[in-house]
Design goal:
The protein is mostly helical. It has 2 domains: 149 residues, no CATH class; 70 residues, no CATH class. Helix content is 73%, strand content 3%. Helix 4 packs parallel to helix 6 and helix 8 packs antiparallel against helix 9.
């Protein structure tokens, strides 16, 4: 499940200024990074999953699929931390390691929830515009856009070529499948690199003075729009102080 497949352009915050939307993300991200409380991390997870569900109007099934891949890798790593294997083969869970594994799991889960919230309320061009507002060097903005275009082109080409090979019975036997998978990877990377180079030349030609302009509706910053995110941030800060000290 990719975010682009479930992204809702008409989410509940799409009329708000970029900085007002950022007030939902930055305080929670910083507090989660500094937190060493399992309860606080779990609270962040709960709040931000509900926020994603409410703001983006995404079904629970899609949310489960969205979180499933990162949580699978995190769970495997945390289980490895909690387990202690001795020879002859004996597996046991050490309490101190188990507590550390749970803390790492909840913190990672909380950071992923906040990150997914950011990706659900910002488009790629808006993220690039935010980078420009906070004075990120233009070189990094250009690399960010190029990397995104490269990944999207890679995925698009892979789907199209795989479908074409499958329609021509390229995967009817194991021998043919191995051969066509190799051809698929070679062709996909060649076309993606070529397209990325074309994009880079176009950006260099049109943005030689690094005056980036991302097409998006003009929105005036209003402090009133920051009422809810600032209230949420103050609430999180209160729980952070209670649960971490």
């Amino acid at each position: 499940m990719f975010i682009e497949q479930i992204y809702n352009h008409n989410h509940r915050l799409h009329q708000q200024h970029l900085l007002a939307r950022g007030a939902y993300i930055l305080p929670a991200f910083i507090l989660t990074l500094c937190s060493h409380s399992i309860a606080f991390n779990s609270l962040i997870v709960t709040i931000y999953i509900l926020l994603i569900r409410y703001i983006s109007n995404i079904s629970g099934k899609h949310l489960v699929r969205l979180f499933s891949i990162p949580l699978t890798f995190i769970s495997l790593g945390c289980i490895t931390i909690a387990m202690h294997v001795t020879f002859p083969l004996k597996v046991q869970f050490i309490p101190a390691n188990t507590e550390l594994a749970i803390l790492i799991f909840t913190k990672s889960f909380a950071l992923i929830a906040v990150l997914f919230m950011a990706l659900m309320i910002y488009t790629i061009s808006e993220i690039a515009a935010v980078f420009r507002l906070i004075k990120v060097p233009s070189l990094f903005i250009e690399l960010f856009v190029l990397m995104y275009r490269f990944n999207m082109k890679l995925l698009s080409n892979t789907k199209q070529l795989y479908l074409a090979q499958k329609c021509r019975l390229g995967y009817t036997s194991n021998k043919q499948a191995y051969r066509h998978i190799g051809l698929l990877f070679a062709s996909v990377f060649q076309s993606a690199i070529k397209a990325n180079k074309t994009t880079e030349i176009a950006m260099t030609a049109r943005l030689g003075n690094h005056q980036y302009h991302f097409v998006s509706p003009h929105r005036t910053f209003c402090w009133k729009a920051c009422t809810y995110p600032l209230f949420l941030a103050s609430l999180l800060l209160m729980f952070y102080l209670i649960l971490n000290f």
